[in-house]
Amino acid sequence: MLAARNPTLFAALVPICGGGQGVYARLLKDLAIWFFHSVDDNVVSVQDTDKLYAALLKEGATNILYDRLEDSPAQAAQDWMIGHNCWDYAYTKREMWEWLFRQKRAPPRDEKES
Questions:
Q1: What is the CATH number of the domain that holds 53?
Q2: Widest CA span in the chain
Q3: Structural domain count of the chain
Q4: How far separated are the first and last CA of the chain, in Å rounded?
């Protein structure tokens, strides 16, 4: 929601087990986004991330990636968080960091255009 309300504040987003709502796709479609989510996450539904990703594609987003993990990549911090820990996977993925640091922020919108 923060990025949707301030699209020129960020160069890229890396939501990890973030969920999201498709209603924000129109506002986020020009941002670089790499999603990470495990299908067996029992804290945040992977279907929410699926819906936002699909909505972004429908809006014409071109710089989005999605690592939809079929199995939990690491043990969660708590037993009740099974499948929620994909941050270990995301933060150790060299390609994600290289991609992230290649992104550039969009220029600020002219206030008169708003």
A1: 3.40.50.1820
A2: 52
A3: 1
A4: 19
Helix (H) or strand (E) holding 88: helix 87-91
Q: Is the pLDDT of residue 114 over 60?
A: no
Residue 64 lies in domain: 14-72+81-103
Q: Strand 12-13's sheet: what is its strand order?
A: 12-13, 32-38, 64-69
**Residue among 70, 73, 1, 66 at smallest CA distance from 34:** 66
Residues contacting 94, CB < 8 A, separation 6+: none
Report pLDDT digits (tens) over 14-64: 999 988 889 999 999 999 999 999 888 888 999 999 999 999 999 999 999
Strand partners, 64: 33
